[in-house]
Backbone:
């Protein structure tokens, strides 16, 4: 995956490449999906939710510019694969999930990894988690139609950022980074993303 999908597509941060090599994606998947864990396809887990193609996950992470000092909110933890990657890049991570089946797997998988810097919360994905805000980074790796004001309000006033994929239509989206500077927002278009996945309808 790293040599065939990530490096050729400008994923150059050595920290990210190392983490993708170390964390075994198949450990977070049911048996029927393990054989295609590293294929260049989305992995649908439930409804319209699932894991993006490996490249798109890596693109979002690289464009996040995460530092150890960042307080991060991960919206939609699924079974914990992306959460476990983010936990290696930040010292404090809040992850929310509200699907009961996924939440159970998320807790079990992260417990096995003995991560001490991750707090798991059962919360509505549309609302984020205001109780722990403000966040330096809000990471949403399942595509959304738009980022709500409710989510934006949870950002740090001093260059807090949201990174996600905003859907253009059912198949196409754009990777975006929205940065907050006091009461102003700057949106950058980062890359094209092809996915039918949607965080919520």
Residues:
């Amino acid at each position: 995956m790293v040599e065939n999908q990530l490096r050729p597509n400008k994923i150059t941060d050595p920290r990210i490449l190392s983490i993708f090599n170390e964390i075994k994606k198949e450990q977070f998947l049911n048996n029927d999906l393990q054989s295609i864990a590293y294929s260049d396809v989305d992995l649908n887990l439930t409804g319209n939710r699932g894991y993006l193609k490996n490249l798109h996950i890596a693109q979002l992470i690289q464009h996040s510019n995460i530092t150890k000092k960042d307080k991060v909110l991960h919206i939609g933890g699924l079974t914990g694969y992306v959460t476990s990657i983010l936990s290696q890049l930040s010292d404090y991570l809040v992850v929310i999930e509200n699907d009961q089946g996924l939440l159970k797997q998320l807790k079990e998988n992260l417990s096995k990894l003995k991560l001490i810097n991750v707090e798991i919360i059962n919360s509505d994905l549309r609302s984020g988690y205001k109780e722990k805000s403000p966040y330096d980074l809000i990471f949403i790796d399942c595509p959304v139609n738009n980022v709500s004001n409710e989510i934006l309000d949870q950002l740090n006033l001093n260059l807090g950022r949201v990174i996600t994929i905003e859907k253009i239509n059912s198949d196409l989206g754009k990777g975006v980074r929205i940065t907050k500077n006091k009461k102003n927002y700057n949106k950058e278009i980062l890359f094209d993303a092809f996915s039918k996945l949607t965080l919520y309808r």
Notes: The beta strands are 43-46, 49-51, 71-75, 92-97, 118-122, 137-139, 158-167, 172-181, 184-194. The helical segments are 2-6, 14-22, 31-34, 54-64, 81-89, 100-113, 149-152. The chain is about 30% helix and 30% strand. The two ends are 31 Å apart (CA to CA).
